[in-house]
Structures are given as structure tokens and as C-alpha cells.
Amino acid sequence: MSTATQSLRPQLDRARRAWRASPLPAFLAWWGGELRALLPTTMQRALAGGADWHLLERRDGIWHLRRAGESAALAQWSDADDPAMQHQTLRQALAAVDPQDLRLALCLPAAAGLRRTLALPLAARDNLAQVVGFEIDRQTPFRAEQVAVDVRELDQPAGEGRFAAELIVLPRAALDPLLERLAALRIRVDAVDLLTADGRRVGANLLAPAQRPRRSDPRRRLNLALTVASAVLLVLALGQWLHNRQLALDAMQAQVDTMRGEAQQVAALRQQLQDNAGAAGFLAQKKKDSVPVLALLDELTHRLPDTAWLERFSLDASGAIGFQGQSVQAAKLVDALKDSPLIRDVGFQGSIQADPTTGKERFYMVGKVRTPPSATPAPAATAAGATP
Fold first, then answer.
1. End position of a domain, from candidates 15, 31, 48
2. Are 334 and 270 found together in one domain?
3. Strand blocks (E) in the chain
4. 199-253, pLDDT tens digit by residue?
5. Does 381 map to a domain?
6. Burial class (CB in 10 A: 0-12, 13-18, 19+), 331
7. Pair (65, 185) in one structural domain
């Protein structure tokens, strides 16, 4: 192991412990199992992968090979057999196992090693192997160079400010001859462990880091490449979705702007139409509510006697009439206009004067235009009576 790898090992161990302590591994395992259960059996077998552990034990000069979790032996051979035959027996037993998934563990009985449960301070968690290395002389009757050691954190309470760890020790005097015999048979093991009473692994690896085989897992690299490719495709898909959404939003915005301009034009035309309609209605109502000047002149022409004529006629916006002229008997003009349907409140303004040139009387009369009945507002009493 290189110096750089050794310096990174505490950080990697810390990250590994944090990962195991999180709920994600259990969730992903459950989720993966549920997804695999939905697939056909043939596809499940094709997708099945990962470490396939096989246990190798030696009892009374006989080697036993079995799959982890199973009690039936896949193969057996004796130390007295020919080395080539022993190696061939192992290869035949493992022929159906994918070499990339094969993991081989040398297992010794529990009595061959020593297991101690320690309560360590939390500060020792980041450098557990080095801290426990100083405990070997105190916890075991061996020196550090005489034993193969592994330590693992236990998931059990150990008191406030402490955590539980298990120290597993195996004398090298019992381990090294077995490793040498396997090396002579060209058999490399991935782990050395102890067995529990029910024949299961304790879960340790007593091989020194330098003795552990370094395996390259093409599937892991492929999975990593596929994961990266999936992430890139996901980012591209999200980017394309955002781009399409932006294009659609821009198109909608342009359409909204166009419709807003059209709506403003329609509103302006509607307002112009309302203004024109209001002006036309106002003029029509004004014309309806007013008496035409020609009608007034015609009324005066018919009601005034032939001995009278007008010199001046005026009509203002308030409906006030003024007319000036001469007549033989000007005083009778009031009676002539008294019953007019168009003119009311007729009277003289100023005095009647005789004109010495014509021998007639000069007058100036004023009056009011009579409002048409349709333009006359309803009396207050009538409006009040109509109110319930």
C-alpha cells in the first residue's frame, strides 16, 4: 500500500462508517430487491452479481470447500493428494462461479483465535486500527508481531462517550503454515476469518493489507461509467427540457404581447366608438330637446300681424329669445304670442317708442323657448309617488 493510500485510509474509513451508519444502504438494498423481484427469473439471474463468498476450512488434514451460508461441501481433498489434483478439484468446484465475483475466505475454528470486546473513546474511531494495535500487549498474551489482528466496530451500546469494538487475534504460528500451503497450491484467499458456533463467518479479515489481493472489477468500472453517462444524459435531458420550456415560454410571451397589442387596439376602437356614439347621442338628444330656429321664425311669422315686421332676432344657448321691430299697435303683440306652443313668457323690454319716420311704434320683446314635452323632466311629486 502506498504512502498516499495510507494517509487517505482514515478518511476512507470515516466515510465508510458514516455510510454504514446512514439509512441509505438498507433503503437501497430493499429498493433493489423490490425492483429485482419485478423482473423475470432469467433476467434476475443475468443481473445477479456481486461478491460470491466461498469458505475454505481444514479439519484433520482434509480441506472442505462450501458456499457461504450453506453447510453442504462443494469439494473435499486431502493434504496427501497430489497438488495438481488438489488445485484441479478446487477449480472444478468453482467452475460455475464467475471469476469476477468469486471470493475465497480461509476460515479457522473459533478456538484457534481470540476475541475481545473493547469499550473505546469516540476519539479513537477515526484511527481504530492504530489505537487497537497498542492494546494487543495488554489484551492478549502475544506481541503485535506474533499475531494477525483485525478490529471491527460493533453495533451495541458502550456507555456515554464510548463505542464498542471487537478485537480479533489469531496467532501467526497457526495461520502462516496454512497460507504457505495454499500458496504452494496456487490458491489465493481474499480473507482469513474465524467461524462461529453455527458455521458462519465472524466478519473479520485477518490478512494483512499487503497480503490481500487487489481485484479489478470491470463491472464496477462499467457501472460507474453507466452512472456517469446516466447523470450526463439526465443533465442533458433536463437542459433540453428547460430549453424547450424556455422556447415555449418565449413563444407564449410573444403571442401574449401580440394579443395585448390587439386588445389595446380593440379597446381604443371601443373607446372611440363609445365617444362617437356618446357625441352622436348627445347631438341627437340636444336636437330633440331644442326647438329649431326655423320653427321659431315660422311661428313668429304666422302669429305677428302683417302690420308688424322684425328688424333683429336673437336666440342664445339658454333658450332666451329677443326680437326687435316695428308695428302699428305694438301692445297687441303680447296677446298674439300668448298661446304660442313654442314661445313663452313673452314681454317687452324697455318702453315702446314711436318712430317719426315710419309713423309706427318701435318695440323690443323678449321671451323663452318652450321646452318640448319629451324633454321636460318628471315632476318631483310624480317621481316620489312612484317610489314604493
1. 48
2. no
3. 52-59, 62-67, 73-78, 102-108, 114-121, 147-153, 162-171, 191-194, 308-315, 320-327, 343-348, 353-355, 360-369
4. 889 988 988 888 888 877 676 777 788 889 999 999 999 999 999 999 999 999 9
5. no
6. exposed
7. yes
